[in-house]
Input
Amino acid sequence: MTTETAPNLDFTEATAADMAFITETIDRLRLDGERLASEQFITLRRDGRIIAFGRIKPYEKTY
Output
């Protein structure tokens, strides 16, 4: 019987250095690339590498 532990995962705020990876991924997946700013993103990291990210984008007018 083996026992596996959860990998080392960390949620962090995105930094300016993360934006190249984030922008490349957004372009490749054809996501919304309008007005990207690191302050809009959080990252999920395993062993220091980004494995996922999320964005909260402000909108001036919503109905």
